[in-house]
Write a structure and sequence with these properties.
Blueprint: E1 10-21, H1 24-32, H2 40-53, H3 55-58, E2 67-77, E3 80-91, H4 96-114, E4 122-132, E5 143-152, H5 154-158, H6 165-175, E6 179-185, H7 190-199, E7 202-208, H8 219-226, E8 229-230, H9 232-243, E9 256-259, E10 262-267, H10 271-292
Length: about 300
């Protein structure tokens, strides 16, 4: 094993992907929960997490690491299951092998679950797509013209009320030359929505809602789970702008940060709070996006 004792302890994150090619029939059976062996996605997800945790046993020269987080996401797509694993650790060495192992083991579990229906399914395309926190970081490619707006509102997701904040943010982004996709999700589903948005490689993700003290408000926690570097000054500036008009803006727990080269910022859930937040971002975003893309500080 390589001696990493002299390396600094940093937060390190790795993301890997893979794909199980199968048939449309199998995808329909998985989606409807009718596969002979039971819940395919839950089984594969747990297998992938277990694989990441046992990487040092499976890969002879890999270090034994105290993992902070393992997340395995599975997406049904026509005739395939997409696999994505995100692994984080605070340590002296990275977790690339843990992320790759998670994808491989999740894929093998998928193969085992579907082989009775499709013995010719093929697992492949396993690769590292991003890593950060150490030497030689690998950042996922981002599209500097694209942004995603995620509305965290259980009632809006159920169709019980119409969201008014997403269209305001999307119009503001389009005025600045960015394509803007609006996604409305229940509070409990925000983390998967964030991870999916980051995987798509936009330059910017703006969330709205879920930043307060209610038990269901989990936007800051979900955001911290996907970013690898925080930008606390942005959240502080947005809170300060809101407090000038609404004292309860001080209760906001919103955060901001970088997920690879994607900027993620939490905005409040009210139209007034959104407008205050966008006014702050109007002066910061051009310079911030330029820096993230590798521009000069000048």
């Amino acid at each position: 094993m390589v001696d990493v004792g002299a390396k600094p302890v940093t937060r390190r994150v790795a993301v890997a992907e893979g794909r199980l090619e199968t048939t449309a029939e199998v995808i329909d059976l998985i989606r409807d929960g009718r596969m002979p062996k039971g819940d395919v996605l839950a089984t594969a997800r747990i297998a992938g997490i277990s694989g990441a945790k046992r990487t040092s046993e499976l890969i002879p020269l890999a270090h034994l690491l105290p993992l902070d987080q393992v997340a395995v996401e599975l997406e049904l797509d026509g005739t395939a299951v997409g696999i994505r694993a995100t692994v984080a650790v605070t340590a002296r060495t990275g977790v690339e092998m843990e992320a790759l192992t998670a994808v491989a083991v999740a894929g093998l579990a998928l193969h085992d679950m579907v082989k009775a229906v499709d013995p010719d399914c093929v697992l492949g395309g396993i690769r590292l797509v991003a890593k950060s926190g150490g030497k030689g970081d690998l950042a996922a490619e981002v599209d500097r013209t694209r942004a995603v707006v995620i509305v965290s509102s259980t009632r809006a997701a159920r169709g019980e009320r119409e969201d008014a904040t997403g269209p305001v943010i999307a119009a503001w982004l389009r005025e600045r030359g960015m394509e803007a996709e609006v996604v409305v999700t229940a509070d409990a589903d925000l983390l998967p929505a964030l991870r999916s948005a980051v995987a798509a490689g936009p330059a910017l993700i703006l969330t709205t809602g879920g930043t307060g003290a209610s038990p269901s408000d989990r936007t800051p926690e979900s955001t911290r789970a996907v970013v690898d570097r925080e930008l606390p000054g942005i959240a502080e500036a947005i809170r300060a702008a809101g407090r000038a008009a609404v004292p309860t803006a001080a209760l906001s727990r919103a955060t901001a940060g970088l997920a690879g080269r994607t900027v993620v910022v939490n905005l409040p859930g009210s139209t007034g709070g959104v407008r205050d937040g966008l006014a702050v971002l109007a002066d910061l975003l051009p310079h911030l996006l330029d820096q993230v893309a590798g521009g000069d500080h000048g």
